[in-house]
Write a sequence for this structure.
């Protein structure tokens, strides 16, 4: 059994999805905690200090490469999985579908939800990461004031709506993905599975809600 | 429960063989007793078709008591019909009412090609079993059954997994046409017992390898398989299978 075989089998592909999924969940915790500093309501001082640590110092910038790798692996593997799984049904589809009687709609729509998140990500990167990094010359140059950029970006109601839609997609992706990832990597103890399902639902509500409240807070002037 | 008779409309998939395109045909059956099984209702229809000089509808069946797994019918969008934890042969017509239209399709999966009408080729499952669903035993006298202590909870879990009758409903129900519930039942059943220990690692690797060759999809834990399984095989067996696979592939020397 080679490493290649290990990760290209049907179960191996899922192991990649599961491990990268959990890695991305950990990233979300860091991301949401840091961004929550905007609610310190200090004109962005605390937030910009955090953003500087993440974007302007060496170690987090090296870790950033790992984050991109995690995203890319998850996305490529996710798309390939979706294509192969659709093919496995064959040419003739069912006339009547099992639908919600057997599973939740969002559990069956991980590919669609992931694609929505991907579209959101492209817009999100274009709003903040790209302007900042290009200003830095992609090294450790001077950063832009991200707090002011946020204020600016989130003054457009349509951008705020798109961010909220992105967060809703993420919420449903995680409502299935959180507990599914642990099953995928082999957690089969019924007690833990139950606990992880509950934690997963809580995570899927709290984290995307906090993210969604950020553009809303700027737009409605709750912080300034 | 009150006994009653009913007239039904059936929309059934007809397909001459694996090389031809199939289509739905409408049939009407009359005076069906609520106490008949779904297959007996099909017997009535087939008698009528034969009497009319038409080709009877081909469908798989054997035990007709819910233990062999042959009776594969996808009824109104659910494998084995509307009842929970039930096989088509044990589905009774009291599940329906007079005037109902029932849609009957074969299992749909690349790995289960249609042979004729509602009959699909499920030998892919046999090849998966052959790849690793066995244990080594010594020849000679049978050992005393009590000489091997087995934890009661594990014995129960193993027995629950061994209930799988290989019907393929899990594949039919899964949006990914994944055979993971079936495979996980077979792997858990043996991995939980000391008798399954000698081939524990090679079994899971070989069986998954065979499953992939057959063209089944990858599991994404939607839960549709567990909801439709006539033997209530638990989806936690799939997580157990994933763990078995991870351990076996990480420790493999080859
Ligand atoms: C921050 C963003 C994301 C997080 C936290 C995340 C998290 C997860 C998790 C935890 C799983 C479950 C893995 C498993 O069951 O083994 C999953 C599955 C999946 N993800 Fe993502 N994901 C993200 C973004 C994306 C993106 C951008 C795509 C783009 C195509 C995507 C596509 C998929 C697909 C297709 C699955 C289904 C596979 C399955 O159900 O196992 N995800 N994701
Ligand atoms: S796991 Fe259940 S649905 Fe799947 S083959 Fe076995 S008995 Fe049938
Ligand atoms: S005919 Fe044997 S289980 Fe239905």
């Amino acid at each position: 059994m080679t490493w290649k075989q290990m990760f290209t089998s049907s179960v191996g592909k899922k192991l990649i999805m599961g491990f990268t999924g959990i890695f991305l969940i950990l990233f979300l915790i860091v991301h949401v905690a840091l961004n929550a500093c905007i609610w310190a309501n200090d004109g962005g001082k605390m937030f910009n200090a955090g953003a500087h640590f993440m974007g302007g110092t060496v170690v987090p910038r090296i870790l950033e490469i790992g984050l991109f790798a995690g995203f890319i692996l998850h996305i490529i593997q996710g798309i390939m999985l979706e294509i192969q799984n659709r093919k496995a049904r064959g040419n003739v589809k069912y006339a009547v579908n099992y639908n919600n009687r057997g599973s939740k709609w969002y559990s069956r729509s991980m590919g669609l939800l992931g694609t929505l998140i991907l579209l959101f990500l492209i817009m999100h990167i274009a709003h903040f990461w790209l302007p900042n990094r290009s200003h830095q010359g992609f090294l450790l140059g001077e950063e832009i004031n991200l707090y002011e950029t946020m204020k600016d970006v989130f003054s457009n109601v349509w951008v705020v709506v798109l961010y909220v839609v992105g967060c809703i997609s993420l919420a449903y992706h995680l409502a299935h993905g959180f507990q599914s990832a642990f099953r995928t990597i082999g957690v089969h103890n019924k007690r833990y599975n139950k606990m992880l399902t509950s934690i997963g639902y809580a995570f899927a509500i709290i984290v995307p809600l906090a993210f969604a409240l950020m553009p809303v807070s700027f737009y409605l002037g709750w912080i300034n | 429960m009150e006994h009653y008779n009913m007239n039904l409309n059936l929309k059934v998939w007809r397909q001459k063989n694996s090389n031809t395109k199939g289509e739905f045909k409408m049939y009407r059956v009359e005076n069906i007793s609520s106490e008949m099984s779904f297959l007996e209702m099909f017997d009535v229809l087939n008698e009528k078709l034969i009497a009319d000089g038409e080709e009877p509808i081909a469908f798989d069946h054997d035990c007709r008591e819910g233990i062999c797994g042959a009776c594969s019918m996808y009824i109104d969008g659910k494998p084995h019909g509307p009842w929970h934890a039930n096989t088509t042969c044990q589905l009774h017509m009291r599940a329906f009412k007079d005037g109902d239209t029932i849609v009957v399709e074969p299992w749909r999966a690349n790995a289960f090609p249609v042979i004729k009408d509602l009959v699909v080729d499920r030998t892919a499952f046999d090849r998966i079993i052959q790849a690793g669903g066995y244990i080594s035993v010594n020849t000679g006298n049978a050992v005393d059954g009590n000489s091997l202590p087995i934890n009661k909870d594990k014995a129960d879990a193993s027995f629950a997994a061994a209930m799988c009758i290989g019907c393929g409903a899990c594949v039919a129900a899964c949006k990914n046409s994944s055979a993971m519930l079936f495979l996980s039942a077979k792997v858990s059943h043996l991995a939980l017992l000391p008798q399954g220990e000698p081939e524990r690692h090679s079994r899971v690797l070989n069986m998954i390898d065979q499953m992939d060759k057959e063209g089944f999809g990858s599991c994404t834990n939607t839960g549709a398989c567990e909801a439709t399984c006539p033997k209530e095989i638990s989806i936690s067996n799939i997580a157990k299978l994933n763990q078995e696979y991870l351990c076996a592939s990480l420790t493999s020397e080859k």
